[in-house]
């Protein structure tokens, strides 16, 4: 009986050990070789598209760097974060999926986990700053007017410092980076919450400051913006063309920001839910085959943003070309009628 009791207590202790301490080889793939090949091919496609897409955004932004508005500077920073994830992280996981195991050891695992968390946190905090900028520009014009380029650069410094702090905290002994349950990728050590109160405190702080708080600010900002836009649409229609065009540009930037935030959250929330369940749910209750799907979805987030930029820019360019055509038609009508006053008004249209 005592032997059975000791075996039972030992099994309970093993259940509460992180998975990478239960396995003899935590870096061996727990997926089939075919599944690893599919995942490796999927990440290769995403990595190539993300690298070229974000690289193109940065190149185009570099050509007009002196004309970038504060909100556009933030979207450039977002492209830098997405490119960082693609260049500093994806090659490690792609090689490991094709190799059917993580081949870079604990040092490479911690680097990969740090890079993913650093650039991911930087992306989310950048989107939080963009949402606040949009909120001030649209809902509080008296505050929005003083947001200049140098304020944007100060904000960037704060964003990078914030991301660096939280990504480096695990190296101070308060947390860790560890292999995923399926073995061929690494992440924050969510499983520390199963082992100690200190581990739970670490995970809860990460969740609050790097996910819940930024997400709450984003949701609050865009809910307020939507309400403001609906209430002010009729007012803007009575303003002159210059104010209307400026309003259209602000709405365009807001649409870009909203779509980017939505894409990011849709990609990352399933992964966050699975990670939280791994941290605070029953040990080993998430099947390995299930845990890999949110991970792969989260890794696709860096690919969406360049597509969103292009779609919105194309729609905006079409709208501007239609506006120019209508302005030209108006100018011809005014010229034929010989009415000077409307012609002067149309000159204002053309100058805009």
TrEMBL record:
Name the Pfam families on file: 7tm_1
Enumerate the spans annotated as G-protein coupled receptors family 1 profile domain.
53-309
How does it sit in the bilayer? Multi-pass membrane protein
What is the name of the gene encoding this protein? OPN5
The record ties this protein, via CDD domains, to: 7tmA_Opsin5_neuropsin
Which family does the record assign?
A: Belongs to the G-protein coupled receptor 1 family.
- Annotated Gene Ontology cellular component terms: cytoplasm; plasma membrane
Tell me yes or no: is Iron among this UniProt entry's keywords. Answer: no
Show the InterPro entries listed in the entry: GPCR_opsins, GPCR_Rhodpsn, GPCR_Rhodpsn_7TM, Peropsin, Retinal_BS
Q: What PANTHER family does this protein's entry cite?
A: OPSIN
Which keywords annotate this record? Cell membrane, Chromophore, Disulfide bond, G-protein coupled receptor, Glycoprotein, Lipoprotein, Membrane, Palmitate, Photoreceptor protein, Receptor, Retinal protein, Sensory transduction, Transducer, Transmembrane, Transmembrane helix, Vision
What are its GO biological-process terms?
cellular response to UV-A; entrainment of circadian clock by photoperiod; hyaloid vascular plexus regression; phototransduction, UV; visual perception
Q: What subcellular compartments does it reside in?
A: Cell membrane
- Its transmembrane ranges are 39-62, 74-99, 111-132, 153-177, 197-223, 256-280
Superkingdom of source: Eukaryota
Which protein, by its recorded name, is this? Opsin-5
């Amino acid at each position: 009986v005592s032997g059975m009791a000791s075996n039972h207590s030992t099994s309970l202790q093993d259940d509460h050990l992180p998975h990478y301490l239960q396995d003899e080889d935590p870096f061996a793939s727990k997926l089939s070789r075919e599944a690893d090949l599919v995942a490796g091919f999927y990440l290769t496609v995403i990595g190539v598209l993300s690298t070229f897409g974000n690289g193109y955004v940065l190149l185009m932004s570099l050509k007009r760097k002196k004309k970038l508005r504060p909100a556009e500077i933030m979207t450039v920073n977002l492209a830098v974060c997405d490119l960082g994830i693609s260049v500093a992280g994806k090659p490690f996981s792609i090689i490991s999926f094709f190799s059917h195991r993580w081949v870079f050891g604990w040092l490479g695992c911690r680097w990969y986990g740090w890079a993913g968390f650093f650039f991911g946190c930087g992306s989310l905090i950048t989107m939080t700053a963009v949402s606040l900028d949009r909120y001030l520009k649209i809902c509080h014009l008296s505050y929005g007017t003083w947001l200049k380029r140098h304020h944007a650069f100060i904000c960037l410094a704060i964003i990078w410092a914030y991301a660096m702090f939280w990504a480096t905290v695990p190296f101070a002994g308060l947390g860790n980076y560890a292999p995923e349950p399926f073995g061929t990728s690494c992440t924050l050590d969510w499983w520390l919450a199963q082992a100690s109160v200190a581990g739970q405190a670490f995970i809860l702080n990460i969740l609050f400051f790097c996910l819940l708080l930024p997400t709450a600010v984003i949701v609050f900002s865009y809910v307020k913006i939507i309400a403001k836009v609906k209430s002010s649409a009729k007012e803007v229609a009575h303003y002159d063309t210059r104010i209307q065009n400026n309003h259209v540009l602000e709405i365009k930037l807001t649409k870009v920001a909203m779509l980017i935030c939505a894409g990011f959250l849709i990609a990352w929330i399933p992964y966050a839910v699975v990670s939280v369940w791994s941290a605070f749910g029953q040990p080993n209750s998430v099947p390995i085959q299930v845990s890999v799907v949110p991970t792969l979805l989260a890794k696709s987030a860096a690919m969406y943003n360049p597509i969103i930029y292009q779609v919105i820019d194309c729609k905006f360019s079409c709208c501007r070309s239609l506006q120019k055509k209508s302005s030209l038609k108006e100018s011809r009508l005014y010229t034929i009628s010989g009415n000077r006053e409307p012609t002067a008004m149309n000159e204002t249209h053309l100058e805009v």
